[in-house]
Design goal:
single chain; Elongation Factor Tu (Ef-tu), domain 3; SH3 type barrels; seven-stranded mixed beta sheet; six-stranded antiparallel beta barrel; elongated
């Protein structure tokens, strides 16, 4: 399997006694990623295998997935913690001003004056309310992915320019340890 795999979810736990699992989605497109017939790469404990989705339904926004070849609760329990991935080549192009999370992670964030703020380590929230998680020397800061604050996003250059309102960076900073 190639190294260009993109995380789309994690198996939370088994569900019921027929081999189904509850998935915590790591995608803004769970209906597309977890559709019946789709093949996902299941990575766990350094091992990877492909599994086809046999059944799927959604409960409280999370997919409950039945994989081909997983028929019992014990088999489903063995998948707990597994990462579910798709090849990057399977991702469809996005409309303008929309980005895949994995394309934003690793981007440098600067303000409009060119001062470094930090590096994106994650993206939180759903598509319409996404926040960049930016690692700084003094901890993390959350920056809303909205027009007017994120003025330039260039994943190819690994650069995001922001124009934060006064105090946003300082008030939003989360320290990584006790003081």
């Amino acid at each position: 399997m190639s190294d260009d795999l993109i995380l789309v979810g994690r198996v939370a736990r088994a569900h019921g006694n027929k081999g189904q699992v509850i998935v915590n989605p790591e995608t803004d497109f769970p209906q597309e990623r977890f559709a019946e017939g789709n093949v996902l790469v299941v990575e766990q404990g350094g091992q990877a295998s492909e599994r086809r989705i046999a059944t799927v339904r959604f409960q409280q926004g999370r997919p409950i997935v039945g994989f081909e070849g997983v028929a019992t609760m014990n088999e489903a329990e063995a998948l707990a913690g597994a990462e579910l991935k798709v090849p990057a080549s399977a991702l469809a192009p996005l409309p303008g001003n929309t980005y895949y999370r994995h394309d934003l992670v690793g981007c440098e964030v600067k303000d409009t004056a060119g001062r470094a703020i930090g590096r994106v380590t994650g993206v939180e929230g759903p598509l319409e309310r996404s926040r960049l998680v930016v690692e700084r020397d003094r901890g993390e800061v959350l920056i809303p992915m909205v027009e007017g604050i994120c003025v330039s996003v260039d994943p190819a250059a690994k650069m995001i320019v922001v124009d934060p309102p006064d105090g946003l960076i300082e008030v939003n900073e989360r320290t990584s340890g006790a003081e």
